């Protein structure tokens, strides 16, 4: 997993009720167990940084003492600069252990000049883990040299300090560990980095449940990038919504407004001519592009393909209707539009098999069970596991991300799968699916890949529905839901 995946899993676990102190406790205890499996009680030196990695070291020190080890802990930072509450708490615990009765030495080394070689039989690198940024600064940098010069067994906590947890690259120098004890899952950088740094890898379970990764949670919002402080118009995404028909003028408008709630700078509805004054009248925030006729048809395709070039993502299908000519246009547009695309509602029923695989850009399809059947010819089974398998198969066959909407949304792409359980029975009201499609388009336009855009949109849309339900019970409309979307961000 990437460092970001780890941050998300951690935050989702916390939202599930598992305190960060428990995760750190499990990490430190796991680390001490690995050490005790390799060495009889002896002298251990722990070099600790001011982040969570150092915190794991503080916890391990406590367990090692209980096992009969002699422990010295060097904190390479001002204790006032310890980053997290859980690391601070564990630092305080070390202060309260009686140095007279326990073979423990704790020292603060703010300056590399005070670092000396260690003769300990085990040397622990608890300097930096997944929170490392940029080149190693002092005194951490010198501490890496001291660890590498030591003769004892070198144990790295989570990552050898100096190895980038995402890329596995070593810029200047890194700890050359004999063993790396990593938590929950192997970080991608460990798999890429040379074995001379990583040594042998031991994965330690710290009690993060499967659900913290399988289900979306508030931690997933950490996947969003920061908005550029000097943003100019258009930089945060432009979405084109193609939809609308005689019966359905609200659907494309809801999708376009949801895209604005999702943070894009520009959201345009392209709709049949006779609808455009109606859609314009809904909101001054919407830009409306008139097409030729009373329904989408092949006469419009060339114009739409050209228009789409100005956008970052396209949402196709909301309220588009079921005219035969519309189906012809939809089949062309899916293949010819060279942008990430969300395909929703009626458009899904019109696609011939194998049309989507001819696209080169990310595609997300957002069917409910009925549309899923019309698109794939398969009825989603009741059993969740079986349903997950089926969604995965359809995602593979259609070379797209499939977001099957339901009480539990299932989102699949290649071998990846996510479940989303935000939302409530009030969301069976018409239009909430259009909001979801528009939101997904917004996230695609902002650079998220199809899979991530889809599961984030499902989470956010459901959360917005849950806020609406808090206010109105289940008697809310899609317009009510819309107004809550920005709050979730
Ligand atoms: N993710 C989990 O579920 C758990 C993680 N644990 C451990 O915590 C670390 C991640 O903690 P974090 O505080 O985010 O990061 P670091 O410990 O790596 O420290 C960041 C800290 O270090 C300083 N710093 C950053 N870059 C540099 C640099 N180039 N030179 C010098 N100093 C640097 C800066 O002050 C940062 O704030 C994870 O790896 C696990 O070991 C848990 O305890 C268990 C749960
Ligand atoms: K480390």
UniProtKB/TrEMBL annotation:
It catalyses: (6S)-NADPHX + ADP = AMP + phosphate + NADPH + H(+); (6S)-NADHX + ADP = AMP + phosphate + NADH + H(+); (6R)-NADHX = (6S)-NADHX; (6R)-NADPHX = (6S)-NADPHX. Its EC number is 4.2.1.136, 5.1.99.6. One of its GO terms (biological process) is metabolite repair. K(+) binds at residues 53, 125, 161. It comes from the Archaea. Pfam families: Carb_kinase, YjeF_N. PANTHER family: ATP-DEPENDENT (S)-NAD(P)H-HYDRATE DEHYDRATASE, ATP-DEPENDENT (S)-NAD(P)H-HYDRATE DEHYDRATASE FAMILY MEMBER. Belongs to the NnrD/CARKD family. Belongs to the NnrE/AIBP family. Homotetramer. This is Bifunctional NAD(P)H-hydrate repair enzyme. It comes from Methanobacterium formicicum.
